[in-house]
Amino acid sequence: MSHLLPRPLLTRLLRPLAILLLAWLALSWLMVLVLRFVPPWTSAVMLERQLGAWIHGEKDFHLRQHWVPWRQVSGWVPLAMVAGEDQKFPYHHGFDFDSIQDAMDAADDGKRLRGASTISQQTAKNLFLWNGRSFVRKGLEAYFTVLIELTWPKQRILEVYMNIAELGNGIYGVGAASEAYFHVSPAQLGPAQAARLAAVLPSPRRLHADRPSAYVQRRADWIQRQMTHLGGPGYIEGRAPPHPPH
User: Fold this and answer.
1) Exposed, middle or buried by CB within 10 Å (0-12, 13-18, 19+), for 97?
2) pTM attached to this predicted model
3) Between the CA of residue 60 and those of 114, 116, 171, what are the distances in Å?
4) Taking the CB of residue 174, how many other CB atoms lie within 10 A of it?
5) Strand ranges (DSSP E) for 106-189?
6) Cα diameter, the chain
7) Less CB within 10 Å around the terminal CB: N or C of the chain?
8) For the CA atoms of the chain, what is the radius of gyration?
């Protein structure tokens, strides 16, 4: 006697699942499409942080973030983030497979596993997902990364990223960070200040742009050298050199 479901019953079960899947795919793409033009009012990571503060009773926690359009941000800021996080950003389509392979080789050699996420992947994670290293989250991150790369121009990806990236405990985006750390508008940030903001991105709750440790200052100095090597703000404004950095 066969234990397989009768075909009509199997069809009745699969049809609503297929409809739900197609509806989710359409809704997720629609969200990405809308956010190409509309500034996101928050992000999943910001909501996660706020919820964590409530759960742990952090009564003094105050989340600061406000949207700043691309034209009102110094060109040094997106350049610093690209120089520090993802120098091949203008050239790849969401994934830096060379960096992924290098990270896997380092892990195989027993070295500490290091991240290989591009700015596109980080934008997808920050905007739609949660912190963590599960395969489910990484799979969803890859899915949203593909949607973002297919739907948004590179400038929009950077614009959203620099507005939602965590740059301190409760401080998200260049607008809040420039005012909290340097008491200037984002348009007034110079290369050294932009480099210090980018330098804290690996661990923004432990590192401080306004009170840089020796490590942060060394990293900021390295980022500034990379900014010069990449050719200045023109690198992310469509005047990039003909070949990506190695």
Assistant:
1) exposed
2) 0.86
3) 32, 34, 13
4) 30
5) 166-168, 171-172
6) 76
7) N
8) 20
Helix axes 119-128, 76-85, angle to 10 degrees: 100
Residues 81, 198 contacting (CB under 8 angstroms): yes
The token pair at 156 is 């929009």
Phi, psi of 201 (to 5 degrees): -55, -35
Which DSSP state fits 92?
S
CA dihedral over 241, 162, 114, 94, signed as positive or negative: negative
Q: Tokens 């928050």 correspond to what residue?
A: 42
Closest alpha carbon to 88 in 63, 68, 113, 116: 116
Type of residue numbered 97: F
Using alpha carbons, list the distances in angstroms from residue 63 to 34, 132, 153, 156, 173: 24, 21, 29, 24, 11
**What mean pLDDT is predicted for residues 32-40?**
97
Distance separating alpha carbons of residues 26 and 174, to the nearest angstrom: 31
DSSP 244: -
- Please give the average per-residue pLDDT across 31-54, as a whole number: 95
Token pair, residue 237, equals: 């404004």
